[in-house]
Amino acid sequence: MTPRSRSSRSSRAVLAASALLMALAGTASAQTILKIGYTPPKDSHYGVGATTFCDEVEKGTQERYKCQHFPSSALGGEREMIESVQLGTQDLVNTSTGPLGNFVPETRIVDIPFLFRDYEHARKVMDGAIGQDLLKKMQAKGLIGLAWTENGFRHMTNSKRPILQASDAAGLKVRTMENKVHMDGYKTFGLLPTPMAFPELFTALQQGTVDGQENPIPVILSSKFSQVQKHLSLTGHVYSPAVLILSSRVWDKLSEADKKVFVAAAQKATVAQRKRVNDDEANGITQLKKDGMQVVEKVDGESFRKAVAPAYAGFAKEFGAERIAAIQAVK
Ligand code: EAX
């Protein structure tokens, strides 16, 4: 063997090795890990929605995108997470509309108490032209609303007394989300609204900083509020939408094909998350009773509707009476 052929053979080997290294490095750098956060635990409607979304994105992009989950407020409350998604330091959030109106004022309209008749009505509005238009409004704020998921109809819990009608709610100090529309509405029930981020809520209930709170059954269940609250009343006083938001920093880098994958994945997440809401609504009350809660199932809803009716004048002024009417008219 001539020295020359030996050197060419070893340089071929070097080339092959470096090609292999490049291929390995290529694989590694082509995979993007997306950070997704939500306030309830992984075993909740939010976790189900997030997991469905991530599985679909992973499949649809041949694992070029994967998720890392941050459940149980590991990245902060919903306001903080929306801020981080806006900055691009967090990629995704599955959040209620609680603090969203502070970023995208147009979305506030869906937070009006007693606006939606039932789940069917609410889902139809969110999936229809009105809801889809609101998703688009987020874009100007660096937030890509991929799909409306769902939190659920909110009910009141407290440590003081059963709430059968609005007058029973009067005087209770109740934690609310950082949401002015909710607070304006709840004041008409006589409640003393105390806005607070979700991560602080369990301790506040435990220590008696507030008498009560309001949340959908899936949140009451997954956050174990039965440990710190005696009374649950099925007031269903407001629908709480949720939304899967992607940072525009990620969105802007996606190919057209990947954008379609992300949106379709979010729509599948919506179906899965709502199904879990349905299941929790169907089975959760029995569980909460077993856990020791006293549940008022037949609440005098009319007394609440009557109380909030005068506040609708203010809502009409803020959002336009015709916009409110358009939502109510969806059948
Ligand atoms: O979105 O803050 C709340 O009460 C929300 O319902 C909760 O974070 C789930």
UniProtKB/TrEMBL annotation:
Transmembrane segments: none
Binding site for D-erythronate: Y46, E78, N151, R154, R175, N215
Cystines in this chain: C54-C67
Keyword Cell cycle: no
Coiled-coil parts of chain: none
Keyword Cytoplasm: no
Modification type Pyrrolidone carboxylic acid: residues: Q31
Keywords, ordered alphabetically: Pyrrolidone carboxylic acid
Designated name of the protein: TRAP dicarboxylate transporter, DctP subunit
Protein source organism: Polaromonas sp. (strain JS666 / ATCC BAA-500)
Source lineage: Bacteria, Pseudomonadati, Pseudomonadota, Betaproteobacteria, Burkholderiales
